[in-house]
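Q: I have 278 residues here and want to know how they pack in 3D. Can you give me a structure?
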Amino acid sequence: MKDLYKDVCYKCSKLVTNNYSTSFSLGVSLLHKDYILPIHAIYGFVRFADEIVDTFHQHNKKELLERFIKDTHDAITDKISLNPILHSFQDTVNKYHIDIELIDTFLESMQMDLDKTHYSKDGYEKYILGSAEVVGLMCLKIFVEGDETKYLELKHDAMKLGSAFQKINFLRDLKADVHTLGRSYFPGFDVNNFNTSTKEAIEQDIQQDFDAGLRGIKKLPKKARLGVYLAYIYYIALFKKIQNTSPDKVISTRIRIPDSKKYALFIGSYLKHSFNLI
């Protein structure tokens, strides 16, 4: 019966992924079958933590997050949780020996979202480390399947890819972050002085992260390469759309890629992979 419970928990994490992110779901579907459920488990964990700080405004978010953090640690230690998202997550953490330091660094960034509204350069880098770079490392732990040498070889590039994705998210979500949540992640950001020069400086930084990320993708085990490459292609498409959008529109509109375009990217990535072009 325990196997049945575990199966149900992983299905819950998959349901979370499918309902929250079409693009991420497409990327996961192109991974080798061995990786699909563990990556869903990581996404479900990350998404629920993010929901606490971004959505549950009518509740005591600090208490909810503290409880979630305690429940996470207990689940990993006890190797069981009655929270299905945490149960699938702890199973993945224990199976792939994901460092608790990565998890705690991520949870720290979620705590920062509770009260920080503006970030210095150091705070910005710390937030990106926790909210994105270590999440990339959790996934990398799964992809290398215990090969520590491969993990260390790809660690830097995996962090940079996560960083690029997160910075794109910041640009995409400027409207909600600034006008709804009252946050601004970019150091020294002033909504009234967001101009072409400021935007281009951010974009140049993102491009450097993307360059390192692509280098790492090409070195990934083949079982993981296609799914991660699709995520990269999706974010590159989103990046280009943001680059071609004026600063005032970026600040007032959530930039997105239509589902039809996402499926076209899916097919193109699959064909490139099939012909060993990546």
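Q: Anything worth noting?
A: The first helix runs from residue 2 to 20. The chain has one domain: 2-274.
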